[in-house]
Every structure is written in structure tokens, then in C-alpha cells.
Amino acid sequence: MRRSKGFTLIELMIVVAIIGIIAAIGYPSYQGMVKSSARAAAQADLMAFASAMERHSAANFNYAGAASGGGDTGAPAIFATHSPATESVASKKYDLSIADIGAGRTFELRATPVSGSVVEDDGVIYLYSDGRKAWDRNDNGTVSSDEFCWAC
Fold first, then answer.
1. Taking Cα atoms as reference points, which of 115, 110, 117 lies closest to residue 134?
2. pTM of the prediction?
């Protein structure tokens, strides 16, 4: 009697099922790491943006006029308008903006998730001139007292 070589259909189905289970468990974890790394890049970009604001203040004796067109709010003229700032605009995950210039002496910077990106439901990240950091995780537009940290 001749012995056949190869895999049976049952064996192949078991392998496919095992791969499917591993993928179902691993994909959400992978997505979480992608969001976390994009958030970390946005936080680093906000810190670099704050440094650019300080340089602007040192040259002009206040923070006023740092936005595009010489304005006080909106897209920055002194830093990249997107994050990750080291990549092209096509791969942006956050829009960077100046939310407020308080009489030229304080600032509020924001990183807002881009709609359609992997981080679109991740919440807005804030950095204030006094060093406070906030992450509006529930994305309701209001930063509550327990959201004044980036690692919470």
C-alpha cells in the first residue's frame, strides 16, 4: 500500500483557526501600541513647539504673533502645523495649534487628532506655558481635574 504525503484538510483548518485566534488577540494590542506611539510623538512635538514659543518670546518679548499671519491663535507660524512633525503632512495624526495667548504672557498649545486617522478618538492633548500638561481622554472639550497629566 502506498503512503500519501502532505497535510490533511483538518490539519490545515486547525492551523488556520490557530492563526485566526492569535490575530484576534494580537490586533487590538497592536492598535493600542500604534495609538500610544502617535500620542507620544504628539507630546514630544508639543514640547518642541513650546520651545519654539519660548524662542519667539525671547526675540519679541511676548508670545503674541506666533500664529500664522501674525495672529495669536490658530496654526503656528513658528513650528510645524502637524504631528509627527518629522513626517509629511500626508501622514499626520494630530493638528498642532495655538489655542490661546493670554495677553502675550501665557500660551495654550493643542494637539487635536485628525479625523480618519488611527487616533481620531484618542482625545486632545494640551500643553500650557506654566508647564501643565493635559489629555482630554474622553474628548468632551473640557479638561477635568483628573485629566491634567499625559500618562494617566
1. 110
2. 0.83
Phi-psi label, residue 34: left if phi above 0, alpha if psi -120 to 50, beta otherwise? alpha
- The grid cell for 24 is 484576534
What nine digits make up the cell of 72?
A: 495669536
CA-nearest of 134, 138, 109, 108 to 122 is 138
Whether residue 82 contacts residue 96, with contact meaning beta carbons closer than 8 Å, is answered with yes
Q: Where are the domains of the chain?
A: 12-147
- For residue range 15-64, list pLDDT tens digits in order: 999 999 999 999 999 999 999 999 999 999 999 999 999 999 999 999 99
DSSP state of 70: G
What is residue 132's three-state secondary structure? Answer: coil
